Amino acid sequence: MLVNLETDLLRTFVAIAEEGGFSAAARRVFRTQSAVSQQMRRLEEALGQQLFEKVGRQRKLNEAGQNLLTYARQIVALNDQAVVTVNSSQQSGEVRIGAPHDIADSILPRFLSTFARSNPRVHVMLTVDRSPNLMPLLEDGRLDMTLTTRHSERFQGRLLRTSPTVWIAAAAFELDRRQPVPLVLADEPSIFRRMALNALDQRGVPHIERYTCPSLSGIHVALNAGLGVTARTPEMLKPDLKVLGEREGLPPLPDVNFYIYRSNVALSQAANALFEQICAG
Hints:
By secondary structure, the chain is an alpha/beta fold. The chain contains ten helices and twelve strands.
């Protein structure tokens, strides 16, 4: 006998797999952890088999769970696409989204392109700024949602991706290890500025700040001028730039997380659709 699987259960199942646990998944789907556990019991009962196994204190997908995951993702994606397509002719209005410079031109284009095709009557307003400036706009209700490097428990959202942080310089730049490392940095507050300075200080590498600029475009100009090196994610890399590392005497840098959060103010149907689309990946 064929069983119809509930999309809501599959959405939570996918969240558990992608977030690495029931607790994190509960935050993503805006439910309590006990509600998530109850959903998974219902899904296992519908299928007639266990989907998880205990590994230490955690519950991980077993073989059956891994087999289901691919189909669950496809079913959830098709469901969301159908809803968006059916409702697209009715949705209009304005969606306000923020994004840091680093990922505005790497993560967002794919989502905005898909959203624009499905919602031709919606006006999207994009604010590109640094994360410390975007979060107050979200809190004040001047943004519907924002991508950010700042983790927050005050808003509903999720981790979108984790990117490595690397040392970047002009393609023709040669680092003289006999001299202090010349730095090209953003001014405060900047997570990449702190990463660079902390890494060099902890390794005891002499350095000097040669150029300071609040904008990513200004940092790019300074790098192309050969003024020094900066710490950034690989999304910044262009043909005229290169990555430096331990071979040049530079210490490794920590990864950086990118999150998306939605305003605590009720979102329009269009804004909610874009938020869910970005969260679904």
